[in-house]
Amino acid sequence: MPQVIFNPGGVKIDVPAGSLIQEAARKAGVEIGMPCGGQGRCGRCAVIVESGPVRRRSTIRLSAADVQTGYALSCQTVVDGDAVVTVPPQEKIERRLTSDKSAAQVTLPFPYDYARDQTVRTFYIRVDPPSYADNTDDFARLARALKSQHSIENAQATLGTLQQLSAALRAADWDVTAVVEMSNWFSPDGPPRLITVLPGYVETTWGVAIDIGTTSNVVYLVNLETGDVVDTAADYNGQVTRGEDVISRIIYAGKNGGLSELQSLVVGTLNRLIERMCRRQHIEPTDIHKAVVAGNTTMMHLFLQLPPEVIRKSPFVPTINHVPPLVARTVGLKVHPEATLDCLPGVASYVGSDITAGVVASGLDHTGVLTMFIDIGTNGEIVLGDGSWLISCACSAGPAFEGAGVRFGMRATAGAIEEVWIDQQTLEPTIRVIGNEKPRGICGSGLISLLSEMFVTGVIDKGGNFHVTAGHPRIRPGEHGGEYVVAWGGETADGRDLVITKVDVDNLLRAKAAIYAGFSVLAQSVGLSLADVQDFIIAGAFGQYLNIEKAIQIGLLPDMPWERYKFLGNTSVLGAYMALLSSRAREQIAEAARKLTYLELSADNSFYDQFTSALFLPHTDITKFPSVQEALTVKEPA
Amino acid sequence: MPQVIFNPGGVKIDVPAGSLIQEAARKAGVEIGMPCGGQGRCGRCAVIVESGPVRRRSTIRLSAADVQTGYALSCQTVVDGDAVVTVPPQEKIERRLTSDKSAAQVTLPFPYDYARDQTVRTFYIRVDPPSYADNTDDFARLARALKSQHSIENAQATLGTLQQLSAALRAADWDVTAVVEMSNWFSPDGPPRLITVLPGYVETTWGVAIDIGTTSNVVYLVNLETGDVVDTAADYNGQVTRGEDVISRIIYAGKNGGLSELQSLVVGTLNRLIERMCRRQHIEPTDIHKAVVAGNTTMMHLFLQLPPEVIRKSPFVPTINHVPPLVARTVGLKVHPEATLDCLPGVASYVGSDITAGVVASGLDHTGVLTMFIDIGTNGEIVLGDGSWLISCACSAGPAFEGAGVRFGMRATAGAIEEVWIDQQTLEPTIRVIGNEKPRGICGSGLISLLSEMFVTGVIDKGGNFHVTAGHPRIRPGEHGGEYVVAWGGETADGRDLVITKVDVDNLLRAKAAIYAGFSVLAQSVGLSLADVQDFIIAGAFGQYLNIEKAIQIGLLPDMPWERYKFLGNTSVLGAYMALLSSRAREQIAEAARKLTYLELSADNSFYDQFTSALFLPHTDITKFPSVQEALTVKEPA
Fold first, then answer.
1. Distance (Å, rounded) from C-alpha A146 to C-alpha A181?
2. What CATH number does the domain containing A185 carry?
3. Separation in Å, CA of B149 to nearest CA in chain A
4. Chain A contacts of B315, Cβ < 8 Å?
5. To bridge B468 with a disulfide, which of A335, A438, A586, B482 should be the other Cys (CB 3.0-4.6 Å)?
6. Are residues B386 and B516 in the same domain?
7. Is residue A131 located within the same domain as residue A29?
8. A137 to chain B, closest Cα gap in Å
């Protein structure tokens, strides 16, 4: 078998001839990011083949000079013999999930009553020890005590619980606290299920509320007795290097072993977050007896190892929206193995339980006021309604605002330009960089800011074309159209001019047009106009960095009074937290899932027209954006 | 780490210093039988240490000469450095489970109606393919079709079923047969559970009825549509080399890794039996959608990886008698992973579901006639009653009749003496050997026959003492009392004199006394006498080889008219077969489990008296055995 040596580090691995460099790297434990999921589209998994026979199936995004130098896409290049490969430094995923609230900031929108609302509860019992005269088996003995001391009838248990039971009862000398799942969404009237027995009298048990985002995972650790969030933790989804968006992940899942790898990666991330909080709070992960999970439908399929291919194929139907009640053991979540695992219900392939949870967390399901809700994450999902009715759609905006498809795009980590101001007279930019470092790229809020400033100052016109004839040194012709130099090489981290190109602008225009068209089509589909919307809820971590004025100026958000906009942060995890505590909140989410009508934009005739109209800054029809029109008028010479 | 080399074969293995030879052998894959489960009691795991530093913790059953030669008990000897060990030929477990009925011989004691009786059924459905207008998820779509086309409401599914669902529906172009568990014992009214979908129209599905015996495992393959047994298979329980009786197994399970090893061993045996039948019948193991299991409580605990220690400790209370509904995946049974797995309910630690199944299979639960039921296997369980009431006990007879604790005892395989006649005048024996080979030992039926003949001919007296003063060459003093030479060295397989000793006779007397005392105490406990018993059912494979006359002569069975005895063979697997087909039969077994009163003999004051009285041939009180008294009188010189 050919041996591949990965540098730096000199890691050696034997692989069958014909293996992809990517496969060899995975086997060797060498990390190579694959934002497009191994489709050979993004070019970011390029490595340098120093020696050895390889075959490049595709060299897209590599120049002839690159290939000459030895560059090859690791997802598209197979090794035919011993090879030496150098892996360039990978984009470091730095932790800057400061958008997470501190535990104390999380508030529940309803009063919590443990005994009334909670389905997983503790019951202290004294079990009669067995004797020759009373040789009832251990489980029946315990069930008898639950019935006589707490009127809990017909209790059942999984095999995993039974395997631990006899030793636990004896170790505690028959004096135990039973942790019981009284009901679940599928069986609201029981039967109750014994999760475990703990020695002696135990008052508190624990739960976790989980949001599985495509990019970020967030977990709240909750005291189920008081209902308090005692800790929160967040990290990038371990799947990120296997595709930046859901489509790339689905493609990766289709590769041999890809699905189970993605499942392990996300569960690994969640387990690390849970362990981290447990260490901080001095509890054991096995003290956690309930987990509630929200996430988009693709993330939920990957978490449950349900093949996600169907989500990507017309007519885009998932395997299941209302996932049956599970126990943690089934997916390998490192809480108590028999803990309740409740995956919240979604609506459709592109409107998942992150949205249904968000709808309930934001109160949209009973607002009474015409409200638009958008969750801007890696995907953009939109809901419109007043609670008595709700209609939703998903915009395939792509992760442009997370930096994908933009030459110097990057996530909001150290070195990212997060805000730009351009002087109207000199066209010189002023930038703010995360971490006050030399700039390495531009993150989503920086891109919106930059686009808006370039438009307002005339660097680009409403079609997104660069005004290269202006004779300004920063506005110059580029490879595929004009470009604007945001930072000269002398000021940047890698010494290269940091630019935004015509291609970048076009990608950003498409992304914002897709979202705006989503708003328009939703309103139109129910015979309303965007002006009728009274409340505009922006959910998702990204929303908190969004500058409303700039977002309106580029036509991403509709032009309406700013006070109508509300930023709620991560409503997905908030909804999961509510469902963790209350079976009624859980039922509200299921009700929202049933009530939400899903509009498939790709099947809607008017979508393409709306999209095309929105491909301008701010829009073909400037009268839809009176505040922008006014601003432009003021700035034009009289 | 010390290296141990096992001969013959020269298998090498590195183990930490201080490891038992047994552990090294297991790691090296070298089979060493351990009938006592590694307690250092039986002496059968002896090996020869050719070289190397070892420490013998115990040398019980080894003579000083043996130790001088290098013999050591592999379960009691640790290696302290490199060693070379020779493993003597191990007792070969040969297949002679001829007591199994052929498939065609198995008859069901009730008419079977698939649609009425069976809980796992097939439903052909045409599912509406999804479209933009109808984007219901796959599972809800299937559930909708089950409801509209077969009135099956509220269907649920396990995650394992869902993981396969989307691909299966599309591969079959939405034209499928759903295999549905309509109900189970815990939820007789549902909800129904989808097991799988099969492409197109499928009429037949399959089930297996399983009896997990301590020594032998038996599986019936059943066509669930017709109810016919289409094949049967049997083999020794793969755990046999880890202990011959349940106590030895429990002890072995307590060793590090022992429980999971025993679980794998028995599941491995069952999987091989299932595969063998599937190959013969040209079906796939995954075509089997239901499995029903009967077995004694220890076997059930080991099968389910429930720690069995509690069964062995006073007051002998198991973890669970009524095992919850499971799916095959949980234990690794190689049928369809989501197949129904129903473990039948037992009564107590020493009266398991092999007995409750047997009670129903034999009709004892509604006979109306005072009946004694005994299942003689590795254990002896007894039930007395007329169906309106039932009382049971277990005799710790030990596996003496399976050859354990008897110097030349062996299982009923080739080379075993299965019947003996002793000439009244010459005291010379005539023997019948299984396979017509040179004798290697004596099996259970041979031991009963021999004991009876020795007693009737006066080779031994009623106390089991050898008449060594008779001056007969075959009756001679042995190491621990007298012995009788059943076959001279010149006639035997290994050239050694094949004898039965005083120690052997004492062991056999204890075994038969325990059983007879069980009969007596049961009858006494309800104020009846053994003479009141109208029917006497003998279950278990061994029963079929039992010679009633001889068994009465040694006082194993009560002296009653022979026509009252009925041999039913393996009623455990028959009961499992009935439960596999009919939920009503399944409920009858649960009802029998609830109805059966368990009498713990070790806690019964009269048991010891009864046991002591029965330690004679046939009994202290010869008047209880009039037919034996008469036979002896006839033979005594007038």
1. 13
2. 3.10.20.880
3. 20
4. 130-132, 135
5. B482
6. yes
7. no
8. 5
Mean pLDDT within B396-410:
80
Nearest-CA distance from B610 to chain A in Å?
Answer: 20
CA atoms of B606 and B610, how far apart (whole Å): 6
CATH number, domain containing residue A80: 3.10.20.30
> A106 lies in a domain?
no
Domain membership of residue B186 as a residue range: 114-199
Contacts of A440 (CB under 8 A, 6+ apart): A408, A410, A415, A416, A492, A493, A494, A498
B618 and B521 both lie in a single domain: yes
Same domain? For B281 and B378 the reply is: no
Check which CATH number belongs to the domain holding B255 and give it. Answer: 3.30.420.480
Residue A322: closest C-alpha in chain B: B140
Provide the 8-state DSSP code for B415.
T
B310 and A131 in contact by Cβ < 8 A? no
| CB atoms near residue B59 (< 10 Å) | 18
Q: Rounded to a whole number, what is the distance in Å from the CA of A457 to chain B's nearest CA?
A: 44
Model confidence pLDDT, tens digit, residues A334-393: 999 999 999 999 999 999 999 999 999 999 999 999 999 999 877 789 999 999 999 999
Question: pLDDT of A101-115, one tens digit each?
Answer: 577 778 898 999 999
Query: Is B301 found in the same domain as B443?
Result: no
Query: Do B80 and B57 meet the contact criterion of CB atoms below 8 Å apart?
Result: no
Record the pTM.
0.90
Q: Cβ contact (<8 Å) for A317 and B167?
A: no
Which chain A residue has the Cα nearest residue B321?
A: A137
Give A-chain residues touching B349 at CB under 8 angstroms. 135
- B516 and B621: one domain? yes
In this structure, are B338 and B216 located in the same domain? Answer: yes
**CB nearest to A598's CB, from B135, B304, B320:** B135
Q: Are residues B217 and B334 in the same domain?
A: yes
Contacts of A320 in chain B (CB under 8 A): 137-140, 162, 165
3-class DSSP state of B234? strand
User: Looking at CA atoms only, how far is residue A315 from chain B in angstroms?
Assistant: 5
ipTM for the whole predicted complex goes beyond 0.85: yes
What is the amino acid identity at position B482? G
Instruction: Find the CB nearest A135 among B157, B316, B330.
Output: B316
Query: For testing the chain A interface, which of B136, B137, B141, B323 should be mutated: the one with the most A CBs within 10 Å?
Result: B137
Could you give the number of structural domains in chain A?
Answer: 4
